[in-house]
Amino acid sequence: MLLRNRLLFRNLTSFLPSPSPPPKSVSFILSFNKRIAHSTHKLPESKPQVAASRATKQPMSERARFAKTVLFVPPGVDPEDVTDEIVLPGSNIVLGPYAGHSQIKEVEFVKSSGRVKDCPKDNRPEFAILGRSNVGKSSLINALVRKKEVALTSKKPGKTQLINHFLVNKSWYIVDLPGYGFAKASDTARTDWSSFTKGYFLNRETLVAVLLLIDASVPPQKIDLDCANWLGRNNIPMTFVFTKCDKMKASKGKRPDENIRDFQELIRENYKQHPPWIMTSSVTGLGRDELLLHLSQLRNYWDQ
Ligand code: GDP
């Protein structure tokens, strides 16, 4: 079993108390106050003095219980200490001590790989970006790296079914994966996508987390729910990145925040601990810096 899976398994099997009404100090999340929790890919391991002091705290307070069941509380943060100020806006993500340098200074396309064993072997941490065709994946990658042409590489004919590695700041990778749910793809192409991409998820040791992109301007789609559930079942750490959150539907349909809530409701049965999620827009820049900060804390902890 991969190290990250072993750690995740330990985390998932820990006892999770039932939710309670939120205390006033964490009121920002009221619209998502159902039983959703966080998913960490690793547990804090090297804080003996913190662990000792926690052992004397009992029972868990209402505030800590709420934080643990609704928020993504990263390693190094005591749920008792969570306040509004350390939760990233438009997300359930608590900012912890591992967050650090997050801005992207340089990015270079490294290679396209047709098989997992052809991917770069330098042990740098990586984040895979995955989503339905047209979800806004290219736009998000370009917004993150602030370049127009980067993600276009993977849209070129012949590269759409490949794993594309982009090296950021010479230290970590953004991995552009094939989009799923192509309307025009044949059944055969879809099957190929499945085994190919699933192989990547299950075997890539340096995968820190999957960023699963979900279009917040439309109601939850079965194909996205299936994908989220498959990743969850296989203990692949993930963050839900909701795209197109600038698209307000006043007259018809639901607003992005309502679609996001519906999506969370539909998947929560499948998670003991709910993954981190964040709202973004490539048009307004919403969530960009926050997402980069989140990636920095996952990466820095992974690097330990
Ligand atoms: P991909 O197929 O997942 O790479 O999706 P693209 O990045 O090519 O985007 C698909 C369509 O959605 C394009 O028309 C984009 O202009 C549009 N789009 C992408 N991101 C956003 C967003 O944040 N807000 C809005 N309003 N439109 C977006």
UniProtKB/TrEMBL annotation:
PANTHER family: MSS1/TRME-RELATED GTP-BINDING PROTEIN, PROTEIN, PUTATIVE, EXPRESSED-RELATED. It holds the Pfam family MMR_HSR1. Keywords: GTP-binding, Magnesium, Metal-binding, Nucleotide-binding. Belongs to the TRAFAC class TrmE-Era-EngA-EngB-Septin-like GTPase superfamily. EngB GTPase family. Residues 40-59 are annotated as: Disordered. The keyword Nucleotide-binding applies. This is EngB-type G domain-containing protein. Its cofactor is Mg(2+). Residues 123-301 form the EngB-type G domain.
